[in-house]
Amino acid sequence: MVTNVLTPSGDPQDMQEIAVEFPDNFLLIDLCGEYDRNLAEIEKTLGVQILRRGNQLAIIGEADAAAAAKGVLEALYRRLEEGRSVERGDVDRELRMGSGEAQVEDTGDQLEMFKGGRVEIKTRKKPVEPRTDAQKAYVQSLFHNELAFGIGPAGTGKTYLAVAVGVSMFIEGHVDRIILSRPAVEAGEKLGYLPGDMKDKVDPYMQPLYDALNDFLPGKQVAKLIEEKRIEIAPLAFMRGRTLANAFVVLDEAQNATSMQMKMFLTRLGEGSRMVITGDRSQVDLPRGVTSGLHDAERLLTGIPNIAFNYFTAKDVVRHPLVAKIIEAYDADQ
Question: pTM surpassing 0.70?
Fold first, then answer.
């Protein structure tokens, strides 16, 4: 049902009230969220007002905004009907991307993405869905290219999504191993005097990779796979001299690799493997005068077939909303 409503400061033709009925009251409660926080997020983002009337939600606002809010609510309700939960991230994704549907389909010898709509990455613990168009294009690129780069600011999901795709391809049997690496470069702090053996010293650098893995695989399984060397997490320097075959390989924080290290790492790519390089050009911790290997790789490899470059901006940040504003402030000061 669509009707016009008059507001004190506007033309009634510019405003609409759209009533959307949801037959299951229990699902409607989950749709609204605790203390109606999901509705509040939609209202704030789209500039509409949402009123609850029994098993209906009335959306009041400008025509385009009201229609957009209706699409978001209906998409989230369909998600609940499918037995999936609606979290804050799901609301954010629908607000950013709309309600198209798609999924990752196993075709036997490769993974394919349907064009358009939603992309879902299946892992042992939970499905993972990109929350921005740039993230969706990035995930598609990871499945379709043997070598892919993800370049952009912190908080845009570059590493998180790469590890999710790696876990998905591993559990589907498309690769035999997952190898995660980072340059062990100190970000303004000296960690070399920390107590313990080599593993104890380098683990602080690798912790973000452990965190991502533990989001997608049960902790005991992660430990077992690491013990069996089917998952490896190691500093970049440990890659020298190896050929990485039938593996999903991720190099994180690649802006802190030197040009020689980047060349060394890229030439480790073996048969049946996929490689992902992620980095943020604004967070280089190399000594002054040392060229970032990420910069050189971007300059030299752009345009080569089967090598994809994917870029993110502050608009793709999916951490706390303040993170995007902080990044924009620093970018504006350069």
Answer: yes
